[in-house]
Design goal:
Layout: E1 6-13, H1 20-25, H2 29-33, E2 36-44, E3 50-57, H3 60-68, H4 70-79, E4 88-97, E5 108-115, H5 119-127, H6 130-135, E6 138-146, E7 152-159, H7 162-170, E8 191-200
Antiparallel strand pairs: 1-3, 1-4, 2-3, 2-8, 4-6, 5-7, 5-8, 6-7
Length: 205
């Protein structure tokens, strides 16, 4: 799984689970023009129409341009997204590998966007609980902090199996307390899914 230092992420549903990658591959030239260089697409395990997508961006300015530009809304419209989702824009504050093979990825993730009280406290708790994460099948943890709300985070966890991912969501450890904040208020529910494609965004000739 490829993750980038600055990203824009969203959790949304499509009318159909057929040809998801093809649908999301269309009209990407406009995103590339605004500074996006990769798109990572995941589909839900239980609902393949549910999609979690991240855009890797060159710099902070690229995110500002994307958020202000109507091309982003046009991209969602072209993909058939009926309800435009909230967008998370942030940068990485921690990446933790819990496996010996850093290039071996399962692509099975649990994603959460949630409010927290203190990022430093969160990081310390995660670092102090790595054995429990490993026992639950967690292989990697990426933590991103929002640009517009310093107490909002997005946390991506890669699990070793689908079964462990589902179990982790159904019975989360106290060390992953942020998961309880997902699905509350404006925040989307926890996303459990699998990698579909990593798309390189290039300007069309």
């Amino acid at each position: 799984m490829t993750q980038h230092s600055r990203i824009l992420a969203s959790d949304f549903s499509l009318p159909s689970d057929e040809g998801i990658v093809d649908v999301l591959s269309a009209n990407n030239d406009s995103l590339a023009k605004l500074g996006a260089h990769h798109m990572v697409v995941y589909s839900g395990l239980h609902d393949p129409r549910r999609v979690f997508a991240t855009l890797g961006l060159h710099d902070r300015g690229s995110i500002d341009k994307l958020l202000r530009n109507p091309a982003v809304m046009d991209w969602f419209d072209a993909a058939g997204v009926e309800e435009i989702p909230p967008l998370f824009a942030g940068e990485v504050v921690e990446k933790i590998d819990l496996v010996d093979e850093p290039t071996n990825h399962t692509g099975i993730i649990v994603a959460a966007i949630a409010p927290i009280d203190n990022v430093d406290v969160l990081l310390a708790k995660v670092r102090g609980s790595l054995r429990r994460f490993i026992a639950a099948g967690v292989r990697r943890v990426w933590i991103y902090r929002a640009f517009d709300d310093r107490n909002e985070v997005m946390i991506l966890q890669e699990l070793d199996t689908e079964e462990h991912a589902i179990a982790w969501v159904e019975q989360p450890d106290a060390a992953a307390e942020w998961m309880s904040g997902a699905g509350v208020g404006v925040y989307p529910p926890l996303f459990v899914g699998k990698l579909q494609r990593i798309l390189e965004l290039q300007l069309q000739a």
